[in-house]
Amino acid sequence: MSGQTWDAQRYAENGRFVADLAMEVVGLLAPKSGERILDLGCGDGALTDRMKESGAEMIGCDRSPQMLAAAEARGVRTVQADMTALPFAGEFDAVFSNAALHWTRSQREVLAGVFRALRPDGRFVAEMGGLGNIAAIRTALQAVLRPYGVDAEEHAASFFPSKDEYTALLEGAGFRVDRMALIPRPTRLPGGMEDWLRTFRNGVLQDLPDDARETVVREVVALLRPVLCDSAGVWWADYVRLRFKAVRG
Ligand code: BEZ
User: Coiled coil where (predicted)?
Assistant: First the structure.
């Protein structure tokens, strides 16, 4: 994975929409009272906390200590773990994940850990970036960072699969796939593109010298303005979601 680090305050200002837009995948999960559910990549726990209203016992899991501290401050029970090395065995009725799975290319390790964590017939319900996700933003970063000797795609090390690709991965891990959809979802950015870049691409930006960082941000924003900023000055990210439900066989 990239050297991405998470600043809970910056995320609260610029990333709240991630939890706010998750109601459809939460609906697909349909958490029930008495169930024990793992929220994989829970971040600051805003969504985990909301799902507690269902009466399910929610456990948040993330590898970022900063984000886990923010989740704990909301009263969310947490476990620190890397999603490629989950420490659970047969203890969850469901594993849920929103906007986290795409942060690693080690998907076989993730899926093996999720499979192990579930009880027989347990469900895995998730939404992640899918094929074509933030294509314009990624292309602009590639173009602007190349003269600095940086391959933005390699640096980000993200994984945005097609439906077929992820179905094969889930089936290969022993899951039965019940639902799989690829959904374009242009997403309004509360703080504009500059704040998005500083929140979600800080891994690549922080490796640059200060003056280069400011130039890169300015050039990426200028390249994207004609395609992702509307005539009212509102910025939209070209998100594409892969949403699925799979059952442990
Ligand atoms: C996403 O949710 O698709 C995403 C967010 C930040 C960076 C990359 C992808």
Answer: none
Give yes or no for residue 200 CB within 6 A of ligand 1: yes
pLDDT of 1 reads: 42
* Domain parsing of the chain, residue ranges: 8-134+158-189+238-248
User: Does any ligand 1 atom lie closer than 6 A to the CB of residue 102?
Assistant: yes
* DSSP classification of residue 173: T
Supply the pLDDT for residue 105: 97
Which residue CA neighbors atom 9 of ligand 1 most closely? 129
Q: What is the pTM of this model?
A: 0.93
The three-state (H, E, C) secondary structure of 178-202, written as one string: EEEEEEEEEEECCCHHHHHHHHHCH
CATH number of 8-134+158-189+238-248: 3.40.50.150
Mean pLDDT throughout 115-136? Answer: 98
Query: In the prediction, which pLDDT does 87 show?
Result: 98
